[in-house]
Amino acid sequence: MTICIINGPNLNLLGKRETNVYGSLSFEEFLDELKAKYPEVNFDYYQSNVEGELINKIQEVGFTADGILLNAGAYTHTSVGIGDAVRAVNTPVVEVHISNTFAREEFRHDSFISAHAKGVVIGFGLQSYELGLQSFL
Question: Which of the listed residues 19, 103, 108, 127 has the most CB atoms within 10 Å of its CB?
Fold first, then answer.
């Protein structure tokens, strides 16, 4: 089974950025733990701060991967293009958020991705990714 994790803007700063919200673990450290816990899963990981690159990656893996865990970061709330890419591919997508977006600013309450996703996991820290992964196992 191949699961592609796609992270959007500023998620490359996990472990350094707003540790009171996002924790002190880098995503790479968390991914190593996930790989050790689920050796039967082939994880493909991609991060970009650029909207078009995220769309390209969704299109690249969206017909071959078994699942996509997508944390589009702030683009969740602004990118019609990412929402359209999720709708256009065959691979099921789980939208993931580390923080509870509904406990944050009002503009973060809307998502251009959710309507096209298999499901949404919000607010469980990095464990949100593992909860999303469970839906594919």
Answer: 108
